[in-house]
Amino acid sequence: MLRYLNQRIVFVPTHQPLRVFMTTDGNERQRALDPLAYQQSVIDHLKREEPHAWEWSSSAGSDREADEVRDSMLRDTYRIEQTGHPQVFEACRTAMTRVGIEAPVTLYQATDGSMNASLVYVPGEVHLVFFGPILEKLNPAELLALMGHELAHYLLWSMAERDHYRASRVLDHALSYSDAKPSHRETARLLSLHTELFADRGAALAAGAPGPAIAVLVKVMTGLSNVDPDAYLRQAAEIEAKSDKSQGLSHPEIYLRARALQLWWDGDPGLDAWLRKHLHGPLSIEALDLMGQSKLTQMTRAFLARFLTEIEEPGAEIVTQLRAVFADFGRQEERLLDLAEIGVEWIDDATRDYFVALMFDVAMADPDATDAVMLAAAKTAAEIGATERLTGALRRDLKWTKTRSDRLVTQAAKAV
Q1: Number of domains forming the structure of the chain
Q2: Which residues are in coiled coils (predicted)?
């Protein structure tokens, strides 16, 4: 243990770097390497809804686990030492200062031939592993960016009493079971995507500009020795205009990462909305994360309360139907959903079908009120851009004729 520690160098930052002032085009702007909102929402959810799992997550990081990591690295990689690679260590020292890390560090070269780098996390120690010829392919600024990216992973997992590391550990453990829920998988996927964006920001801060960070992404993707980050940003803008949300399992697509980094660096006020569109996409009942489940449950209750206001004197049968879903429905003041929250831009077709089905359930609860409820359903469907979904469901599920369903839509339009 002591022999191994003697091979490390401790890098000490000279300033507090979590608030970094950079100069771009003569304008001084503050850039903070803070976690993204989604990352914090995962932590908050796990603490609130999964307290036992959260408590379990605090058990990680034993001395035995750390020893196993060190031994594995020594067996399977080449340890890089400062005497033979001074420029690599100098880049690491500078990047650590700029992203705000003070810890012993050890660098390794793996035998894998594909270009990449990774952090092997040990609390209180930095272990960076390089793959393929990546150290030979990068210029000095790009090497700083590469170091900054991997060090940002370490910084994130060390923040806030290691809450981000604990959240990742809980989800990884959940996914190790064959019966892991789709919501766990989607939460883990989105958390990983946001983590990579955080690390990309660390890369830009370490390099002093987003260009080198983007160049590293493209070089890893292509294996080229020379790339033009500005040209790739133009390419990314073209792709973005034609693409849907990210389909990445652990990393967003490179063009999304490049665009997200540039928007953050520029301080674009629309960044949060951009992330929602390109990482999350419209709310989909078929791909809900843990927070999405809670959100849709709340929206369902508020939607039903809003829908009830469209029905003149709803009978006891309808109230009974709603209390089968929410036992205390109507026993307190209910929030009424703003239908703009489930407009065309914010939910997908599967979720629109879900809200149509909710209205059908209410309509079927009281045979004497079916016509009146269906009229309210048609009016509501028109407001959320779901008229075609409604008429399709009427013909498919309730066997209405086209004439009858079209008549309902016409009546609703007149009523509005």
Answers
A1: 2
A2: none
